[in-house]
Amino acid sequence: MKLIIYTALMLLLAAFTAKAQDNEQPIDTLTRHVAGIRQELDVLKRIKISGYIQAQYQVADSGGINSYAGGNFTSGVDKRFLLRRGRIKFQYDAPNIDKGWSTSQYVLQFDVSQGGLTIKDAYAKFTDPWCGWFSITAGMQNRPFGYDIPFSSSMRESPERGRMSQIIFPNERDLGAMLTIQGPKISNWNWLKIDLGMFNGTGAPSAGVNTSDFDKFKDFIGHIGLSKSTPSEKIKWGLGASIYSGGYRVDTVNTYKFETDSTGIMGYTVDQKKADVAANINVRNEIMRSYMGFDAQFSIDWIIGITTLRGEYIMGSQPGTSSSTTSLAAASASDFYTRKFNGAYLYFIQNIARTPLQAIIKYDWYDPNTDIKGDDIGIAVKQSGFKTTGLADLKYSTLGLGLAYRWDANVKITAYWDKVTNETSANLAGYTQDLKDNVFTLRVQVKF
Hints:
Order of helices and strands: HEEEEEHEEEEEEEEEEEEE
Radius of gyration: 30 Å
């Protein structure tokens, strides 16, 4: 009898054990599935997709004007709808859980507009895993010069950067590598940032324009900046200084420098004749392109709202052609003209109390040739070998007035008026008086 009872108990125990094992199998499978999903979610959380669209309607004083408010107007056109920017950005950050900062970052950003599809950013950034102070960024990226160039167009209060910024740094980006020295956010030295980079100097491609490098010369860009705030974050301020040193290969063209001829008239004389340029492409001379800049920012959050002051001054030497001072994106088939320039922009921005309204005042100027003014421009030179000054030597200034309205956290509507004033000369046909080239812009920006 005892044997029968013992045998029955053993059979029941075996049955319960088998049942328990059967129950554990789906639990283990579910656990593995949950772990896999969690791992995939961790990867997805490190991928950030963002972007914005800027659609606008513009009215110009005259049809077919040349403009830096979103590009030139087509001949005979003084009103237009424009998809100014359509950006989508993909960013992946690899975490460093122990240190609290990302050791690697990968960014790819496109711009889609009526002009076509272009790459804006394509770079990888690597930060040292030991102290987090040193980063290397390689690829298509913002030039680290000043404050205005790296500042996002989705955050900027005015519709466009100033005329000078667009001329000396077209498309803002360039292909190269940059070393950044900055303490991590947990560091007491996070307020100091140093950027040192080497770039092609040709800028980023635009729709239909290839800006592959065309010479052996590389351009150096450096910026040192500091930003501080009070413990309450009510007052914030920053200062910065920048330097740019580079240039272009001189092919079989003349180079000109600015001088005064024997009769006292200012113009351009040959600095180097094309016949003197070496036939060997590897030993051809470089025409220098050098800038120095200073920037400052200040904001205070007080009873009338947030007040922001921001400015930047740049001076230097800019090689261009007889008709343009825009930085070159390809080897020049035209003669080079070197000019000393300066320019600046100043912002006053006032959030109106705690309302969604923001008032904007901006003033900027660009003087492409600081050695000549007014009626001296365009006077015909008399000495043989000299070239007469012209349109590319005129100074421009722009006063911008705007009002922005925050529809919600993602939508901003901006009404903005650019009053453009050009330098005049009695000796320059078509520029004896100020041109009618003011532009009104009504923009809607949607950001996600």
